[in-house]
Amino acid sequence: MDARPINNRAWFLVAPVVLLVAFNAILPLMTVVSYSVQDTFGNNEFFWNGIGWYKELLDPHAELGGRFFDALWRSGLYSALILAIEVPLGIVVSLAMPKKGPWVAVCLVLMALPLLVPWNVVGTIWQIFARGDIGLLGWVINHLGIPYNYTADSLSAWFTIITMDVWHWTSLIALLCYAGLKSIPDAFYQAARIDGATRWSVFRFIELPKLRRVLLIGVLLRFMDSFMIYTEPFVVTGGGPGNSTTMLSIDLVKIALGQFDLGKAAALSIVYYLIILTACWIFYTVMNNVDADTKEGAS
Amino acid sequence: MARIELNNLSHSYKANPSGPSDYALKPMTMTWEDGGAYALLGPSGCGKTTLLNIISGLVIPSQGQVKFGDTDVTRLATEKRNIAQVFQFPVIYDTMTVAENLAFPLRNRKVDPARIEARVKEVARMVGLTAELSRKARGLTADMKQKISLGRGLVREDVGAVLFDEPLTVIDPHMKWVLRGELKRIHQQSKTTMVYVTHDQTEALTFADKVVVMSDGEVVQVGTPQQLFEQPAHTFVGYFIGSPGMNVMSAIVSGNKANIGGNEIVLARDYGLIDSSKKVEIGVRPEFLQLATGTIGHPIVIRRVEDAGRYKIVRAELAGQPICLQVGEDAPVPSEAARITIDPARVHVYADGHLVRA
Amino acid sequence: MTVVLDRVSKLVAGAPHIRDVSITLQPGSINVLLGPTLSGKTSLMRLLAGLDAPTSGRLLVEGKDVTGVEVRKRSVAMVYQQFINYPAMTVYENIASPLRVRGAPKAEIDARVRDAARLMRLEPYLARTPLSLSGGQQQRTAIARALVKGADLVLLDEPLANLDYKLREELRSELPRIFGGSKAIFVYATTEPSEALLLGGNTATLHQGAITQFGPTVDVYRAPHDRQTAEVFSDPPMNFLPATVQGGAVQTSAGQALPMLGTLQGLPAGSYQLGFRPSNVSLSSVNGASIAMPGTVAVSEITGSESYIHLDTPAGRWIALTPGVRDLAPGQPIEVFLDPARFFVFASDGSLVRAPQRATAQGGQ
């Protein structure tokens, strides 16, 4: 970092944002921390509970803890599946996108469209699309002989929400990788041709190394979003059938708004928040190491 | 692979070229012998990189033929042509070590691993990278990376020619001397045909046995560095080669005398009558002009003296036309008016830019 | 307007990019920063411009401390290696842009733009956009824009490096004339010693972030303070021969005796490095080149009128520059001759002990 000449005026411009963030985020966060160490049903009656909720949360045999770990497992599985599908698919799509010529603009617009749809609209689209009776996807699958009903069968439900997320967010990875690929000079491809490299070698030794940084950003964003996901699966399945698609966030809302058990919900929120924070910190550290690595040899 | 033959080769990047200006490369026919060191020299946009890419197969020419030995390779894919190319900036595979970089082309061609190891060691010794073989290619300096690029080109035993596209661009001046000497040494050791593209006349002249001077898509002259220096076939060659370039001045030539604004310059031979519709000029290099003492020689007005270290460049005017001469670093230079003598054997006559030969 | 750098240092992530630099730049001067890549030229220019602040030390303009003052408040113009022009504007508008930003009256803008265009020979191109011009013309546009701003400090960071050899030569020979008309301080960074010589003015040689010498270019070239400066300021690289003086006699490290002539005359006892330029290595013993050295030809490069001969000697690899075409075969044994009057004598710590005398008026050519 450079020691830039100091500009005191900047602080005054930042002040409104600081106040806004404090009002919207920091104060509520403090409230949640406060609730998490108490027992309350939101009716202004508070009973001190210390770390009680946390102990119950982290105990897999307790009712709260059992629920927490179930939902945690489901969220983790969901994120893992999402990343395993979207990242390779996004890379493949970006490799297929044209770099020059009239189709570039068309491709970019098409790729960007799914990212622009409001999230609950995405949920609604898929909710109808996947229905066995009036939805195209549901009807076709059932007609092919595969039993498919996302309201009754948990496998179908998972299939639906995963496919929906892939449709929604693969473009992000694709566009990020596309930008990364565009920055590779032609000479590298020419040299690879002269060296007799196969398409796979070109990908492995030229494209993938140059995409490392971009991919890390993409994976970080997708992990965060998929781990925190709420709207889309909730609109489609409501967390069901049963609680087979109840992710951590959905469970949290059930406890907080369904049961008004604010103390438990607050504790769950804090733990949830810490998990995500840790994951982000790990990504950030890895990203910085990758940066340092690539910088030392930059020519 | 024996020699490289270019037969009536020309290229236009446009689908339907309408006239000569649409051609990046105008029709040319040339033969390059096996094992020679050649340079393609010319300013940006003269077509030298297009020509190089046609030879390496990255561009298919719109007309004409390219032959390697007796085989027509005009439309043959790059991978099958047995050529190697070193680019302007180092192209290396960052994730591999130096040894793995050098082995890469052989691995792709499924060569026996024992043979790969032996060959990598040999090439590393040739380019001077033996000590770095196990280091990651990423952390090396620019000149070492260019050596890796070169080594990767030489490692294939069947490589017929190595093509260089302005390879010293990112190298520091000091390292340029070392690397240039190394390239020449490697050429003499490996006896592979090498074609070197550059806009830097020092690089071209020091590296090549024969230099192809190009301008605007055409070949202006082909010759050894000495021939290009002493007998430029075109005023462009005279200007482009030599630092500073040849002095070109308008003159009236009759018999064995050239007249520049009243100054009569003796020529080496009788030029007879030159077609009066052509633009007549004489050319003489700054190195062949001498400052004279006393009243002999032609009067010049000195405008500026530049110090280039081991010599000085005197910029002056002869009868109003700019002229420059080279003098030694310690030579005294008068401040304004002076006289110069011109060696008749070093004066050339040009009509419309072309050398008038005997 | 004098600019003074007082003990300026710059550390980036703990590594020193600039070490303890103190120089004074006078108005109306051309100052060349000469050094290899990564020697600190760009870092130093950014400090001068105010784009970066030094880690320690002060920057004074006309006696006032402006360390840490942002570049927007300073009178600075900068020209880069990549031709940086506004692509959507014409050449005229590009050159006019600094004046428009300042809000100068239209008549003044027109006059000054046309003046600058005439100076940079851009008059026929005023209505064109930069991308339709050649590299040389684009760079001339960038220089014109920097000049028209009328800044007190004009910084040029290797402006000719991306141009073709011949265009570089042309533009470079015009620069002294272009700079000469202005009262601004010009700072010009380059890696090529020949550019420093041709521009004249003052030169600062840089080595690993420190300025080894700063003074009139000719002085730095002919009387470098130390070996580092001599090495930076030579192209082709200087040749070195280690020697010791003992009991009134000179001996090379290989045991060869050298006559006590030229700059070796009367040297006190000690161990030295003798430096000499490639142009002072002859293939024949004429004109005072009296010391014979054996060697083997490594490679011979011909430039048309001269030849560069790389040879291996007991003292290492040397380069000899001789007139004429000499196509020598590698491996061929060769004898070269050195002129003791042309030796630079450096002590073992690198400082200069003796420099060759400049020839007097009776010197021939």
What key attributes describe this structure?
heterotrimer, B: alpha+beta, Rossmann fold, OB fold (Dihydrolipoamide Acetyltransferase, E2P), 2 domains, 6-stranded mixed β-sheet, 5-stranded antiparallel β-sheet, 22 strands, C: 365 residues, alpha+beta, 6-stranded antiparallel β-sheet, globular
Structure in words:
The complex is a heterotrimer of chains A (299), B (358) and C (365). By secondary structure, chain A is mainly α. Chain A has one domain: MetI-like (MetI-like fold, Orthogonal Bundle), CATH 1.10.3720.10. Chain A is built from twelve helices and two strands, in the order H-E-E-H-H-H-H-H-H-H-H-H-H-H. Chain A has helices spanning 9-36, 52-57, 63-96, 103-116, 119-129, 136-143, 154-182, 186-194, 199-227, 231-237, 248-258, 262-296, and strands spanning 38-39, 47-48. In chain A, helix 1 (9-36) packs across helix 12 (262-296), helix 3 packs across helix 7 (154-182) and helix 7 packs antiparallel against helix 10. Chain B has two domains: 4-239, P-loop containing nucleotide triphosphate hydrolases (Rossmann fold); 247-355, OB fold (Dihydrolipoamide Acetyltransferase, E2P). Chain B has a six-stranded mixed sheet with strand order 6-7-8-3-9-10, sandwiched between helices. A five-stranded antiparallel sheet of chain B has the order 16-20-17-18-19, with no helix packed on it. A four-stranded antiparallel sheet of chain B has the order 2-1-4-5, covered by helices on one side. The two termini of chain B are 39 Å apart. The mean pLDDT of chain B is 87. Chain C is of the alpha+beta class and 365 residues long. Chain C is 23% helix and 35% strand. Chain C has eight helices and 21 strands. In chain C, helix 5 links the parallel strand 7 (153-157) and strand 8 (185-190). The longest helix of chain C is centred in the middle third of the chain and has 16 residues, at 165-180. Chain C is globular. The two termini of chain C are 41 Å apart. Mean pLDDT of chain C is 88; it is low at 360-365. Classes of the chains: A mainly alpha (299), B alpha+beta (358), C alpha+beta (365). Chains in contact: A-B, A-C, B-C. At the B-C interface, helix 5, helix 6, helix 7 and strand 17 of B face helix 5, helix 6, helix 7 and strand 16 of C.
